[in-house]
Design brief:
heterotrimer; A alpha+beta (about 700); B alpha+beta (about 150); C mainly alpha (about 200); B: alpha+beta; DNA polymerase, domain 1; 2 domains; 5 helices; about 35% helix; C: about 200 residues; two-stranded antiparallel ribbon; 4 strands; iron-sulfur (chain B); iron (chain B); metal-binding (chain B); 2Fe-2S (chain B); 2 iron, 2 sulfur cluster binding (chain B)
Chain lengths: ~700, ~150, ~200
């Protein structure tokens, strides 16, 4: 790459971010064999900018939804680049294909970018060192880089990266820069505070909802009140008379009201008189569950895995444990209600708002509006939670359509009720578990599952450690939409499989920890078929959490539950402690051991684990969505109950298994096991086996 | 539309709004004080909490016409330099994840500390009823204790 | 003592309390007071019948939700524990930074799911909890009549309580909430009839 090329690239960044940067550095991505990232194409990439005053800006390439990547991704660059973390700035990168996969989902940001960002930082560092060596006419080997300076070891001469920038961009880009020895890591693995925390605690405008632009109109949209109903006649006479209402726009199946304030838009929207026609089936949750039961009694049609013969084992058994577990529909309820800013005028589209998939949003808007992708910019600010809701692009697309029709910059704001009725829900599911048992042996494990929209993905770790194992599943047709919800699949599978495992331990009078370790030993020594996990890692986290909690020595008045799960490349094992207060269980403490390879930011990583545990306790205990005639019954937090402070554990102790391996997922893996660990603790405390979520109403 | 003179963060601010407009939207849309957040619109989640004469008001259900002469403090006015003991404790313990609910949490906590300068865990549990889906409650509880310590050793 | 004797005693107690109220009343009686408390003849059957009507209202979510067993109000037509578990506090107006009025405004907040409002929104105070939740008609009638449990109300004050703003608010509950099973006028009539015909409690 030549200097001119880098200047052009810099100029493009400058235009995208709108900053007054006069000089910038760009560094290319690298050829990579890692097909898990989208960087296989040789494309220039932009991660490091240097401002005229020498200030170094690191770009965080993935959307920040609370998972901490705006902090942890730049830490990786900073580590190799050799800068003082306290002196750098961080910006969220705009959508630009040169950044590769700019998605928040699948606990994939750190996993996908660790190796590449290290190289990016190291290459830049070598270019600064080479630049200084040339200026001083010394050997680069005699120079070191640290805290944003290159130092000539023998003479002690120093030049800052800022001073070196113009020279550095003319340096050859190292194809294989030397990476730091991890034992010299200064930042990776330490506790680093979120880069935005000061802005957050002082109320700075960080979020999409905070967008305020000259001439912008505020919009609210009337959408169908039930799945199965579509837009009929619209009378907007009253809406147009509401003070502040400027425009009413009819979309395909919704009506937007545009006004000079959010409140006026809401009043206008609520004043619309709309006839909603029933054009599809109006579904009920009760029918979903009845349908599930019927399928499970008959036997689902799709076989996922079938080792040995569970039917013969059932005949040999002295007892077949046969139980059903129920999982309700859930909404996402990220705290920032959906919104999006769009400005579609003169064939150009500016989009600014919350999405986990900016690239997909651009594609979808290009298609809907018939506007070339090159004329669409997407900038994604910090987001008030994601949890999978914004893997769907409906909020951004809708805003673009409204702006295009109104020929005006528009912010579309959703109410909480809009969010709840127009979600892509975590699907309702039902599981049937059967275990063939003798007095002291588990002969077979048979997992059957049915859920709205699809079958169930995945298996428990018992698959691969059992001679007789079968999993089968079936999807269930519904016009209620489903989507991804934090730790999709794993978040419900772990609850049912690990609760059922506890039931088996009770039947066989086995210790839940020791019995699991037996399985990991079997999986290691004599695996049956494909093994979807590493039994040594599973064993390591289980043993670590047992040690942390002094498993086997439960204090008086405390009841414990255990569960473990592998997802998104990481292993989590948990012990939940509950006490009974007025006969009701209260979670007092949770222990969690995690095996996730190298930890980048200890504070952020711990926060993710603690947060996933509280999130998991919340959704195990309180909320559920019920459809009646296609309409969601729980449309706000007064009926969609959420955990509050008094339900949160007093303490959550987290330990990471020390590891030199590349990082694996972290935003999701601690959520799946917690519902089972909690349910198992509640069983220990009350003798009630809770096979239906949420628990609260059953206690 | 009517004109209202509101005392916000120590200044008298004049706004023109319909009398039923919730204070939340007056702050966000008329005054561009967007630190106060919209989360549910029905006083459930607490993201919109402001300090109104020392009480933790949920501004999404408080009509602007009912504010009167009462003094409003928003997150932007919690401290002059962002150094309220709660803000410092929040930073020190790296409380936030997505950060969206935290301004409401801080305003609820600041009113709690006014009436209860050294709250117990139970008092925190009873007073702090804001929702956080990220699950930062455990750190919030610790940060309130830390802030109380900072306040009481000042 | 037979049930009948008990009723007579209760009746006598309230006739005397009634008389006293006229002589030592702390507020100047208004015209409305005179009209509403023109005494009727004691009539245990009519009184008990009237209370049965009253009881239906008092046990409706609009009344029972703020007269809970514990220190946390109930909410919704299904009378579940109030979602963020606000506590009664000494004066019934909340605890620490969690006051009823933080959310319950002077009037109903507009919209589905939004909190109902009243200038005086509160629970009964901690020293006079006036629990309705779980009470039988007999228990509730006895409690309502006992000045030690009813906020030191004599019969006149009880009658006046039907005009309390917060009581009336039950019939203006905001969007998405049902009103009590009687109209307000029917309730008031039943309430006054009960008190004026001897305030008999239904049998246990």
């Amino acid at each position: 790459m030549d200097f001119m090329n880098s200047r052009r690239n810099f100029l493009k960044v400058s235009a995208l971010t709108g900053g007054g940067i006069l000089f910038g550095l760009v560094f290319p991505s690298f050829e990579t064999n890692d097909t898990s990232t989208a960087l296989a194409d040789y494309m220039p990439n932009i991660y490091i900018k240097i401002k005229p005053d020498g200030k170094i800006v690191l770009m965080a390439p993935n959307p920040e939804i609370g998972q901490g990547v705006k902090t942890s991704l730049p830490i990786i660059i900073a580590e190799e680049l050799g800068v003082d973390w306290k002196k750098i700035e961080v910006e969220l990168a705009p959508l630009d294909n040169r950044y590769g996969r700019q998605t928040a989902g699948g606990s994939g940001a750190i996993r996908g970018r660790y190796a590449d960002l290290r190289k990016m930082g190291a290459a830049a560092r070598e270019m600064f060192v080479n630049a200084a060596a040339q200026i001083w006419s010394v050997s680069a080997a005699d120079c070191i880089a640290d805290d944003g300076m290159v130092i000539h070891k023998s003479s002690g001469k120093k030049l800052s990266y800022g001073e070196l920038a113009s020279k550095a961009v003319t340096m050859q880009i190292p194809a294989n820069p030397t990476l730091k020895d991890p034992k010299d890591f200064k930042y990776i693995g330490t506790r680093i505070t979120d880069v935005d925390v000061h802005s957050i605690v002082t109320g700075k405008p960080l979020f999409g909802i905070d967008t305020r632009r000259e001439g912008m109109l505020f919009a609210m949209i009337a959408r169908s009140p039930a799945y199965g109903k579509t837009l009929g006649n619209v009378d907007d006479t009253k809406a147009r008379k509401v003070n502040g209402v400027k425009n009413v726009i009819k979309l395909k199946n919704s009506v937007a009201v545009l006004a000079t304030s959010t409140w006026a838009a809401k009043k206008g929207r609520d004043a619309l008189v709309i006839q909603w026609n029933t054009t599809g089936k109006l579904e009920n949750s009760s029918d979903h569950f009845a349908g599930f039961k019927e399928i499970l009694e008959k036997g689902p049609t799709t076989v996922g895995r079938n080792d040995g013969d569970v039917e013969i084992a059932k005949q040999k058994a002295t007892k077949v444990l046969d139980v059903y577990y129920e999982i309700p529909t859930l909404s996402h309820c990220q705290m920032e209600p959906l919104n999006f800013f769009a400005d579609v005028r003169d064939g150009k589209v500016e989009l600014y708002g919350p999405t986990q998939v900016p690239d997909q949003l651009r594609n979808d808007v290009a298609e809907k509006l018939g506007i070339n992708k090159d004329n669409i910019t997407v900038v994604v600010p910090r987001q008030g939670g994601g949890f999978g809701r914004k893997l769907m692009t409906d909020n951004g697309v809708e805003a673009a359509l409204v702006s295009a029709a109104a020929q005006s910059p528009v912010q579309v704001q959703w109410t909480r009720e809009d969010d709840m009725q127009n979600d892509f829900y975590r699907p309702a599911e039902m599981y049937r578990y059967r275990a063939a048992l003798t007095a002291n042996e588990l002969l077979a494990w048979h997992q059957s599952a049915v859920g709205i929209g699809r079958g169930i993905r995945g298996d428990s770790y018992v698959a691969g450690a059992m001679v007789n194992y079968r999993s089968d599943s079936q999807g269930f047709n519904s016009n209620t939409p489903t989507g991804w919800w934090r730790a999709p699949g794993a978040c419900t599978m772990a609850y049912v499989a690990e609760s059922f495992f506890d039931e088996i331990c009770l039947e066989l009078k086995k210790d839940p920890v020791a019995f699991r370790l037996d399985f990991f030993k079997k999986a290691k020594d004599a695996p049956v078929g494909r093994l979807g996990y590493d039994p040594i890692k599973y064993k390591t986290v289980v043993e670590l959490v047992a040690k942390m909690s002094n498993w086997g020595t439960t204090p008086t008045g405390v009841y414990r539950g255990f569960a473990t799960w592998f997802s998104f490349g990481s292993y989590a094992a948990q012990v939940v402690e509950v006490k009974l207060e007025d006969g009701k269980p209260r979670v007092t403490k949770v222990y969690c051991a995690v095996y996730c390879g190298r930890v980048i930011n200890l504070s952020g990583a711990e926060n993710q684990i603690q947060g996933a545990i509280v999130d998991g306790i919340n959704h195990a205990m309180f909320p559920k969505v019920t459809f009646v005639d296609g309409a969601v019954q729980e449309t706000n937090f007064n009926t969609y109950n959420f955990l509050r402070m008094y339900d949160a554990p007093l303490d959550i102790e987290v330990k990471f298994v020390e590891s030199d391996e590349a990082p694996t997922g972290l935003g999701e893996p601690a959520l799946p096991p917690i519902a089972a660990a909690l349910g198992n603790a509640i069983f220990a405390a009350t003798g009630k086996r809770l096979r239906r979520l949420p628990f609260a109403g059953q206690l | 539309m009517a004109k209202y003179s509101l005392s916000i963060n120590g200044k008298i601010m004049s706004v023109e709004a319909d009398d039923d407009t919730p204070l939340l939207w007056v702050l966000r849309d008329n005054l561009n004080l967007v630190g106060t957040k919209f989360g549910c619109g029905v006083a459930q989640c607490g993201a919109c909490t402001v300090d109104l004469d020392g009480e933790a008001l949920r501004s999404c259900v408080l009509p602007v016409s009912a504010v009167g002469k009462r003094k409003v403090v928003t997150i932007e006015g919690l401290s002059e330099d962002g150094d309220h003991p709660l803000q410092k404790a929040w930073e020190e313990l790296d409380v936030s994840q997505c950060g969206y609910c935290q301004s409401g949490q801080l305003m609820a906590a600041s009113t709690l500390l006014k009436s209860t300068p050294d709250p117990t865990d139970q008092q925190i549990d009873e007073a702090m009823t804001n929702i956080c889906r990220c699950g930062t409650q455990v750190r919030i509880r610790k940060a309130i204790h830390l802030a109380a310590k900072k306040l009481n050793t000042k | 003592m037979s049930t009948k004797t008990k009723f007579i005693l209760v009746g006598l107690t309230f006739i005397s309390a009634f008389g006293l109220a006229f002589s030592v009343s702390l507020h100047r009686p208004t015209e409305k007071d005179y009209i509403s408390i023109s005494p009727l003849k004691n009539d245990s059957i009519a009184s008990v019948e009237a209370f049965k009507q009253v009881y239906k209202v008092l046990m409706s979510p609009r009344c029972v939700n703020c007269h809970p067993k514990g220190d946390i109000p109930l909410q919704g037509d299904n009378s579940v524990i109030h979602s963020m578990q606000p506590k009664r506090g000494k004066d019934g107006k909340g605890l620490y930074a969690m006051k009823c009025a933080n959310c319950h405004q002077q009037s109903n907040s507009p919209g589905l799911n939004a909190p109902p409002g009243n200038p005086n929104w509160h629970l009964p105070s901690a020293d006079m909890k006036m629990v309705f939740e779980g009470k039988t008609a007999h228990e509730l009638a006895k409690q309502l009549l006992n000045p030690e449990l009813n906020g030191h109300k004599d019969i006149k004050m009880l009658i006046a309580h039907a005009d309390d703003g917060l009581v009336k608010a039950g019939w203006n509950p905001g969007e998405g909430r049902t009103v009590p099973p009687l109209t307000y006028a029917q309730f008031k009539k039943a309430w006054i009839t009960w008190l004026q015909t001897g305030a008999y409690a239904p049998a246990q």
